Structure prediction request, 533 residues.
Amino acid sequence: MRFTTLIKHPADWMKGSGLHSDVVMTSRVRLARNLRGFSFPGYSAERQRVELLELARPCVESLPEMADGYSEEYSGLSKIRKQVLVERHLVSREHAARAAGCAVVVDRKQSLSIMINEEDHFRIQGIRAGLNLRSAYSLVDKVDTALESMLPYAYDDRLGYLTACPTNLGTGMRASVMLHLPALVLSDQINPVIKAVGKIGLAVRGLYGEGTEALGNLFQISNQHTLGEKEGEIISQIEKVIERVVSSEVNARQKLLEDNPTMLHDQVGRAFAILRYAHVLTSKEALNLLSLLRLGADMDLIPNCDRSLLDMLLLEIQPAHLQLSAERDLSPEERDTRRAEITRTRLQLLTGPSNVSTINQPSEEKPSDSNDE
Amino acid sequence: MKCDVCESEATVFLTQIINGQMTTVNLCDTCSKAKGVTDETGFGLAEAFLSQAPAPISAETACPECGFTAAQLKKIGRMGCPECYHTFRDGLDGLLKSMHKGTRHVGKVPHQIVTQNAIAGNLGLLREELASAVRDERYEDAARLKSEIESLQSSHPSHA
Prediction:
């Protein structure tokens, strides 16, 4: 499959469905695996990485899951194309920064990707829409078992799967869930939630993983421990935590609607107005406003707004996707103009937030408390 | 003051008195974590460092497989190759304790290893049975067991 064909279609997980999909965007599970007798990619010479790639890539491509898939070595990929794969969460930022001896293989539905020579020889990743870690795990588990029958894995009875970084030893598994938590952010409850999640040994990160900002009220929660626990136990623990965070977010949304409907309608209405009519939109502004619009759509404040339209737009307006569709490099200013143009066009189809009056609602105790002169 | 393990600047200074005998240890931040000093629950200083202390890994210690050195490990916090986990095994447990729920893998085991372990287990049992057959002078059983062992070994040469 060609790159353009792969990217033309939305991934299965972008269709905005699945359990708790009003709060949970995606569930991802990745396994780190390495081969015996080869140095880890971060320490090996280019010659060794190429040797491993030549051995491993045909095995990966031969997997039944990868039939009609997309397979590309990094030396044949432009910077923008690599970045598009990062924006689609198919490869990591770290992997995209590498060159010779690195490759990625993606299935046609974009729900399975295998990075070769990332920090580890293999990073096998499965993505599902909504809260569905188990299905993502069973996908990567199956692929892992098939690869293991073809290639000699580095495994130790005591330490489990041997990985470049000791933080991944044991199962080599990282399970992460991407959450959209606008109501917890709007009602200032997000910090205690993050703290509580951190206390039980899970990590909370921003949109693109380690060290990134939580743009668009998007947060990733994932396990930190990989040794001393079974895969199923790790997943159960995350599921339990996610269920609790989801119900906090749902409650916070309900409470906003009851206690502060004016503020909520105002935020959603402003977000719609700017996105619908602006001619210049920075990435950060667009992500944050789209988050509010998605909140409005999920709470039925915007009639007939399909969530997947917004999720697709969220991807389309990211820097590399913009440059790919323009078929050239764009300056940041050009990107902001183009981003606004695409957003205006996509939102044309929407009728806008319903025009409800909230003045006479009982919870609005002090309508006179405005700043009007 | 220098770290007793790796000669970096020491930041952790420990004194412990057991049966009137005083022991002091100076460690850098990394080594103190590696040795599990941050884990205050029941670590014995003397046990951890002196009585059964393995020879400290010097910065020049290199992995025989890939040439990766202890100094590099300390600098980047990652291993050079799978074999490094054997080379730099000493002190690893303390590090793992600070990172993970346990120090022993309990998750998925590659099917190849499961099969190998099962074969090794079967071979062990058969050998025991063979020994007892020989001891009891049950020679027919012994001959049967011997041929079973041989056929298992020939189909899985790594266990020969």
Remarks:
- Residues 12-50 of chain B form one domain.
- The CA atoms of residues 134 and 142 of chain B lie 6 Å apart.
- The mean pLDDT of chain B is 77.
- Chain B is about 45% helix and 10% strand.
